[in-house]
Amino acid sequence: MYRIGKEEALAVERTLESGQFFKINDAGREVQHFEEEWSKTVGSEYTLLMTSGYAAIESALVALGIGPGDEVIVPAYTYIATALAVTGAGAIPVIADIDETMTLSPESFEKNISEHTKAVIPVHIMGLPSNMDAICEIAKKHGIAVLEDACQSDGGMYHGKYLGSIGDAGAFSFNIFKVITSGEGGALVTNSRRVYERALIYHDASAVAFFGDQLSEVSEPLFGGAEYRVSDITGAIMREQLKRLPGILADLRRNCRAVYENVKTVKPIPYNDFDGACCTAAAFRFDSEKDCRAFKEKMEKQGIGITVPFDTGKHVYCNWTQIMERRGALHPAMDPFKMKENQGLNMNYTPDMCAQSLDLLSRTAYLDISPDWTDTDLRRITAAIDGE
């Protein structure tokens, strides 16, 4: 969480005092208004506000028609939720390498395509844009759907387009660790009416046909799904957070740029689009893990925290216990790894299968950027990096 204050508190108070804070109401309609405002912001035709980024990814996969018998390519470096959403849809996640940008390697993506591949999920991790030109070109050539995981990149861009709005669908997260937040929350965006209607049904299957007129213009037949609906309290908070987003990103980018421009002794990683990155962290690349660890130790002695992404637990594929051990559901009949339709698909996971990713993750260091750093803070931090 970067910035939150009285505006969000007043929005919640207003919503509670209305006495109508179920999603469908005749008062503030905060969820509806946020969905309209988020669509306008990112340039997508449709938005659905949900309980989490996972909910958005799973709903998008289901809406895209992904299920048993299908493979979905995911990068080796992403939070486990990305892969679990694939198993939640009944499909098999295929793990591909990242490249020096810390995002999905287009080459590894294409190498892992099979006759069973139905979708790819490029992840804009740490606010870093994936190489969407190359990924979309490969996907189009092979008839593969593109679902962007923009959960760590609210408001990020790639060559003038908002992350999440470039592929067939996009997913965002608004939990407490994200650029803007309602404590928990997420959103799905798409320009496809069919994907929108299916996701609408899936994400609120037990209520969408009962409350309000949500199905008045829906032509997709009803089917069973989940319940990822949020209340108007979430919508009210997110509307205020959305107002803060431009300022948060401008300050993050300014401070990250200042770090890169003033540091002389360490090198930043390459970016697919630096101007569009959220800049939640400055990322440095070292020649060896030893050098990276030494940098981390030096900085921490000066009270400046450094994260080596190799150490981030469930963000690294070899720590995805449920995936690596092929347990996708409690009941065997619901476990995609045991489903007849999925036998023979690519689920041959080994701890060292993405050696390139492990190497990059061990030689990269993140310095978290604060949008509230002053010039004095920046001088202190850059001096510490350069050992002055």
The counted number of beta strands is 12
Proportion of residues in helical segments:
25-40%
**Superfamily (CATH H level) name of the domain at 6-241:** Type I PLP-dependent aspartate aminotransferase-like (Major domain)
The CATH architecture of the domain at 6-241 would be 3-Layer(aba) Sandwich
Q: Under CATH, the topology of the domain at 6-241 is which?
A: Aspartate Aminotransferase, domain 2
Uncertain ranges: none
Order of helices and strands: HHEHEHEHEHEEEEEHHEEHHHEH
Shape descriptor reads globular
* Main sheet summary: 7 strands, mixed
State mean pLDDT (0 to 100 scale). 97
What does this structure look like?
- β2, α4 and β3 form a beta-alpha-beta unit.
- The protein has 388 residues and is of the alpha/beta class.
- The protein has a domain of 236 residues: 3-Layer(aba) Sandwich (Aspartate Aminotransferase, domain 2), CATH 3.40.640.
- It has twelve helices and twelve strands.
Supply database-style keywords.
388 residues, alpha/beta, Aspartate Aminotransferase, domain 2, seven-stranded mixed beta sheet, three-stranded antiparallel beta sheet, 36% helix
Fold blueprint:
Elements: H1 6-18, H2 30-42, E1 46-50, H3 53-63, E2 71-75, H4 80-88, E3 92-96, H5 106-111, E4 117-120, H6 132-142, E5 145-149, E6 157-158, E7 161-162, E8 169-173, E9 186-190, H7 193-203, H8 232-262, E10 267-268, E11 281-285, H9 289-301, H10 321-324, H11 355-362, E12 364-368, H12 375-385
Parallel strand pairs: 2-3, 2-4, 4-5, 5-8
Antiparallel strand pairs: 1-9, 6-7, 8-9, 10-11, 11-12
Helix pairs in contact: 1-8, 2-8, 3-4, 3-7
